[in-house]
Amino acid sequence: MAHPYMPNSTDDAKARMLAAVGVADVDELFEQIPDDHVSRTPNGLAPGVRSEATLRRHVRRLIDRNDDCVANASFLGGGLWQHHVPAVVDEIVTRSEFLTSEWGTPSSDLGRNQAWFEFASLLGDLLEMDFVGLPVYSWGSAAGYAIRMAARMTGRGEVVVASSLSPERLKVIRTYCGTEGGNDLITVRVVDVDPATGTLDPAALALGPDTAAVYLETPNYLGVVETAAAEIAAAARANGTETVLGVDPSSLGLLATPAQLGADIVVGSTQPLGIHLHAGGGVGGFIATRDEERYARQYPTLQVSLGSTTEDEHSFGMVLFGQSSYGAREDGNDWTGNSVYLWTVANAVYMSLLGPDGFAELGRTILANAQYAARRVAEIDGVEVRWDGFFKEFVVDFSATGRTVAEINAGLREHGVFGGKDLSADFPGLGQSALYCVTEVHTADDIELLTDSLRKVLA
Amino acid sequence: MSGLRRYHAPVWDEPLIMEMSAPGRRGNVPPEPIEELDPASVLPAGLLRATRAALPEVAEPDVLRHYLHLSQETMGMIGISLFGTCTMKYNPRAGEQLAQRDGLAELHPDQDDSTLQGLLEVVHRFDLMLRGLSGMDRFVFQAGGGAAAAFTHATVTRAYFAERGELAQRRDVITTQQAHPCNPATAAAAGFNVITLPLESDGYPSLDALKAVVSDRTAALMMNNPDDMGIYNPHVKEWVRTVKDAGGLAFYDHANFNGVMGRLRAAELGFDACMFMLHKTFGVSKGGGGPAVGAYGCTEELAPYLPGPLVEKTDDGYVRRENPSGVGRVREYSGNLNQVVKAYSWLTAMGGDGIKEAADLSVLANNYMETRLLALPGVTKAIPTMTKHRLEMTRFSLEEWSAETGLKATDVQNRMADFGIDAMWLSHEPWIVPEPFTPEAGESWSLEDIDYWIDVLAHVLEEGRTDPEKVRTAPHEQVVAQFDGAGLDRPDGWATTWRAHRRKTGRA
């Protein structure tokens, strides 16, 4: 029986191709492979399921065993956040023309290239930055690449990061910065944040002659908006150090832009711009700078530029391709490959739909909802919200309740609530604390469910 | 032109979305806050945005129509794409639909394992399937693409030798001229020195060349086999043995697995680790360049160095656990697990019989193409001394035709698009074959589509002799004319954003 995915799996097609090639048996075509290379062990795979109905039922039953963030009220964030994804985004991003496309040429894939350019342009408007590369795998990857850019530009070998950094992203950054004994090692120096405010004090930076970059995020992983970001960027500049700033684009209709703060290289996640969580598969990272040659020549990404055709039409092409690993192999700026380019189409659609007022309103709603939720949670006996000045995430300290976050979260699950991310292992100084995330998708009923459930669990 | 289809791309003269702005229009309205709050009451003025974002203002139906127009101006699945080295194949809609369900799309990776049992079971099942195909002992899916899997190997190698106290000594990673650029590039990014072996007349570097560079400084060998020209190194077992005898690790970049799947097992050839690209070989959508998955597998000996978390089956269900001596993370979370579910769905549909048949059909179709293409005057193949049937794909050359007509492979690429053919792949760097092109039929394109592709090429080659100007100025039936990239690599020429373009062109 022919397989539905393989048009040539009919006897007729095979016979025609064999006859044209002039072999009697397809095995003859594998003559390059020495006999003792061919595996004799069964591969353990079951026979194929040719019926889509049967296949769908099987996979669907597996997926539907999961408990998701729609059926439950989820307060999980920490670098991957539940936001509303407009229906138009899903409609466009599942189009086969975008899904099943590869490299193309400027004319054969004009539409996709235009969407890529629009992604970079719209993000540039949000960040107030003029040079934006095509995205990389994730925010952590973007931070790692940006730090390596800064090290190449300055010829220095140290990056300073805040102790409030996401443990997950810090691990990625460390992987990108290398290991003692290798070439081009970048030392990661962690500076403690002020326990009273959760923010980084510029006086604590201790910038030295070998400091290539300060890597700072605002809002930081613990939710707090960094109050001294501009001062830190100024101090870094005075020291010949690059400021790499990580930002959450969902905050930028409301919060100061990276340009306003004086950042040099800006990175962040594209996930808040119209991408579902996908169990951690919804991530993407961007890199942006001022449009200066010294930055452009260090980009490790692919970049698409507006240009024109021989007939003076708008078209789009890759620029500075020769400095990528595709162009220069080991002599390129780091390495590139498949990334998350499909998501840039989602991002472009999302940013177009929201526009300037949508982003401003989104920011105000998130801030107000998060502050409301924190106030309501703090009303519960023994529960403390650590710091104010946060945007959409905040640290809830349960230490005084005598219960662990793990116990509390297990109890909350019984009520259809996914409690905040447990911080107790990664941030022991915070005791039994959890990072709670509240966005525009949360309603007053969700907060009511959370506080009622917390009271029951803590009773 | 008889026998060829009439084709003309949909042309919309579509403006940029930034040019579609009309003050006051809206495409989406966020919810009202639960209770009103003045931002200035909780954040200092200096931390608030000073100016309104310069984003366009567009209504929902206009945004939808704009991006539908752009989708129509993207050949992708609409055309015929025999794009070699990337193995274009059909992306089953069932997998795409399943991945849209809340039970996958709306999962947070920090959820408790007890709420992710279906997903973790899929990951574990798929890990077992890949172990069966490779002979490796453990897979992780964290890498966001094939190059990221190569980087994973470079970092695993680094951790392995660091723990042995040999990292300062083991500085060299050996690749070949025909290894994908990501292999030397990731080795360099991970802090190694790269040694690249040149090809001999039979299409692969000699064993002697390898032996000449292997030493107690060797950290790893990173190679493809077959390579991007469809040439299989028959001495690969000796290669792996040579490197391992010297204390190095051997990594098999399985970018070209499609033609040999079900026939070869990396572990049986002696490799310590390998990588599969789920976004090509296993039917997952490419998306124009991701989200992708580079599934990285290794032996028990290297498993302690894998990035975490690892998924395991226990008596209490499926769990994720950290890997204490591992490299930490090459990327956040467990990877693009939505794509892993699609690959699991595809491989379940194909089964052990299906992948063997897909490999057979793929190799058969590529040889069918070679037979027909070499019958075209002006077409030759790379490494003509390698006369055995090629695997996966063949790299051809238009050098003779180019000398005759003064035209280039890129001209052919542009002109073929006028007939509904998506751009053919030319070659990775370095171009060791003049005027190269590398078509790959795979198992997803019908014989009729393959014949059409060849008929179009035959037509264009002949047209190059009779009307070279038509080919040189192509495309003519595409969305827009040929791109003029001259000057774009200069600071005053490039504009990666509309802001930069407007500034450079003096438009406010």
From TrEMBL, chain B:
Keywords: Aminotransferase, Oxidoreductase, Transferase. InterPro entries: Aminotrans_V_dom, GDC_P, PyrdxlP-dep_Trfase, PyrdxlP-dep_Trfase_major, PyrdxlP-dep_Trfase_small. Residues 156-400 form the Aminotransferase class V domain. It catalyses: N(6)-[(R)-lipoyl]-L-lysyl-[glycine-cleavage complex H protein] + glycine + H(+) = N(6)-[(R)-S(8)-aminomethyldihydrolipoyl]-L-lysyl-[glycine-cleavage complex H protein] + CO2. SUPFAM superfamilies: PLP-dependent transferases (SSF53383). It comes from the Bacteria. One of its GO terms (biological process) is glycine decarboxylation via glycine cleavage system. The keyword Nucleotidyltransferase does not apply. It is an enzyme of class 1 (oxidoreductase). The keyword Transferase applies. Gene3D superfamilies: 6.20.440.10, Aspartate Aminotransferase, domain 1, Type I PLP-dependent aspartate aminotransferase-like (Major domain). One of its GO terms (molecular function) is pyridoxal phosphate binding. GO terms for cellular component: cytosol; glycine cleavage complex. Its EC number is 1.4.4.2. The glycine cleavage system catalyzes the degradation of glycine. The P protein binds the alpha-amino group of glycine through its pyridoxal phosphate cofactor; CO(2) is released and the remaining methylamine moiety is then transferred to the lipoamide cofactor of the H protein. This is glycine dehydrogenase (aminomethyl-transferring).
